[in-house]
């Protein structure tokens, strides 16, 4: 299944706030559709599915990619749920978004795929690249790239910079200092339900 390109506010109304997907706020807080305001009792499967969909739409990844991340998280030491969130948070597109260089994760993905972002001085155009501690994230040395990022920084997606990142707004250079802490993940999600959802599928 390919990446979602449909109406974003419809997804936010159904799943709740997704800071990586859109900066806009829906006018209505209930799910879309004719029966959106009717309170239905949800099954355990529906609740797990909803948590999984939050991850997919917030980070802008396909089902196949998410399955791969779950498999990698299973092989990691410690909590599988926290390892899964760490893998997703350390993606380059999400890191560029968290540094404030783009207003949303899709915006950050476009910056990267168009060759505006560098890592340790080299252009990287792969949004799924896994950032590692010690790496320096910058902007390509051209006026157009700098203007684009400076324009994006006027309307950042999130106000607070997480503790594992540092960013110099004058030079437009960021650095990854370590691994992300669970408390800095802005998404309201129960990652254990996502792991349970995939326990029979993966």
**Strand portion, in percent?**
5-15%
Shape: globular
Quaternary structure of the protein: single chain
Number of helices: 8
Unreliable runs: none
Proportion in helices: 40-55%
Main β-sheet, in a few words?
5 strands, antiparallel
* Structural class category: alpha+beta
Helices and strands, in order, run as: HHHHHHEEEHEEH
Task: Compute the CA-based radius of gyration.
Answer: 17 Å
CATH class wording of the largest domain: Mainly Alpha
Instruction: Report the CATH topology name of the largest domain.
Output: Ribosomal Protein S4 Delta 41, Chain A, domain 1
- Number of domain units: 2
Q: Estimate the mean pLDDT confidence.
A: 85
Number of strands: 5
CATH architecture of the largest domain: Orthogonal Bundle
Strands of the largest sheet, in order across it? Answer: 2-1-3-5-4
In whole angstroms, the N-to-C terminal distance is 17 Å
CATH homologous superfamily label of the largest domain: Ribosomal protein S4/S9, N-terminal domain
Question: How do the helices and strands line up, and which of them pair or pack?
Answer:
Blueprint: H1 8-15, H2 44-59, H3 63-75, H4 80-89, H5 92-99, H6 105-113, E1 117-119, E2 122-123, E3 136-139, H7 143-152, E4 165-168, E5 173-176, H8 191-199
Antiparallel strand pairs: 1-2, 1-3, 3-5, 4-5
Helix pairs in contact: 2-8, 3-4, 4-8, 5-6
Structure description:
This protein is of the alpha+beta class. The chain has 2 domains: 8-87 and 187-199, Ribosomal protein S4/S9, N-terminal domain (Ribosomal Protein S4 Delta 41, Chain A, domain 1); 92-178, Structural Genomics Hypothetical 15.5 Kd Protein In mrcA-pckA Intergenic Region, Chain A. 41% of the residues lie in helices and 8% in strands. It is built from 8 helices and 5 strands; from the N terminus they run ααααααβββαββα. It has a 5-stranded antiparallel β-sheet with strand order 2-1-3-5-4. α3 crosses α4 (80-89). The longest helix is centred in the N-terminal third of the chain and has 16 residues, at 44-59. The mean pLDDT is 85.
């Amino acid at each position: 299944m390919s990446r979602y390109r449909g109406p974003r506010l419809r997804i936010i109304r159904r799943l709740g706030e997704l800071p990586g997907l859109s900066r806009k706020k829906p006018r209505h807080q209930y799910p879309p559709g004719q029966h959106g305001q009717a309170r239905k009792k949800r099954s355990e499967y529906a609740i797990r599915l909803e948590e999984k969909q939050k991850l997919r739409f917030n980070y802008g990844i396909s089902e196949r990619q998410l399955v791969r991340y779950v498999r990698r998280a299973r092989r990691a030491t410690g909590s599988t749920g926290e390892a899964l969130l760490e893998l997703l948070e350390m993606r380059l597109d999400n890191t560029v978004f968290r540094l404030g260089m783009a207003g949303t994760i899709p915006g950050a993905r476009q910056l990267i795929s168009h060759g505006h972002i560098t890592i340790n001085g080299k252009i990287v155009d792969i949004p799924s690249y896994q950032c590692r501690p010690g790496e320096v994230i910058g902007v390509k040395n051209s006026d157009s790239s700098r203007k684009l990022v400076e324009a994006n920084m006027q309307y950042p997606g999130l106000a607070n910079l997480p503790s594992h990142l540092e960013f110099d707004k004058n030079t437009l250079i960021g650095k990854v200092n370590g691994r992300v802490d669970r408390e800095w993940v802005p998404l309201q999600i129960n990652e254990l339900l996502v792991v349970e959802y995939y326990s029979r599928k993966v």
